Each structure stands twice: as C-alpha cells, then as structure tokens.
Amino acid sequence: MMPHKGAAYALLRISVGLILTFYGIGKFMMGPGTFADGLVAQFAKTPLPPVMVRAFGLVLPYTELIFGLLLVFGAFTMATLILVALQFMALTLGMILQQQAAVVAQNLLYSLVTFFLLFFHEYNAFALDNLWPRPVRVETAEVRVRRVA
Asked: Are 56 and 39 contacting, i.e. CB atoms less than 8 angstroms apart?
C-alpha cells in the first residue's frame, strides 16, 4: 500500500468519526429525552408514528457517539461503516419526508463519503483493525473450479 493513500484514508475516516462523535455529544448535552421529544414535534406532520420517531431519537445519540469513536480509532471499521451508511439512509428518509432538500443533499454527501470509505477499505491505515490478524481465506481447488465455471 502506498503511504499517502493510507494517510488520506485515515484522515477521511477520522474526520467522519469526529463529526459523528461531536454530534452525538451535542445530543447528550441536550439530553437524549429532550432531543427525542424535539424530533417527535419536528416529525408530527409526517406519516411516521411518534413512538418510532421517539425511539429513533433516544437511540441516535448513542449510535452517533459509538460509531464516531469506532471510526476515529479505526476499530471494526467495515461493520461500522455499513451501520453508518444505514443510519444516514434513515436520517435522509426523515428529511425527505419533511421535504428538507438542503439537508437531504448534505446527507447525500455524508453517504457518498461513507461509500468511498467502504469502497477503499483496503487503504485503512492508522487503525486498531490493523493490530489483530485478518482471517485467512482458505480455498480448495474444487471451490476455485466451481467459481470459475
């Protein structure tokens, strides 16, 4: 791996991680219950059930903080990025239902960055993931023949 690609990947991964971490901290400082109540009010005119919106609002501060810290430290990066992508999809759906085009566009950029981090995962550098061995994939000749055929 070329060192500059690993550094670029790490800087982007850590940047996304810091954004998520500090958004999560902000929601904790507000109070998860207060944040969730605000979401319920904000989504009152959408077809989403208030119970579901409140549950999402109560969980979001935790997921943002946990996913953010995992990305900052590069731990379980692949799984974390998949969960982050799903979270961005849920957040974007909510903004679509509210017809918030500017926020939808911003979320699309976050989704695009997440996509690139997933796509170029082999460049993941300066990460805790690199401290433990990766599983070795063992193939038999029979499996290779079936895959080729």
From this structure: yes
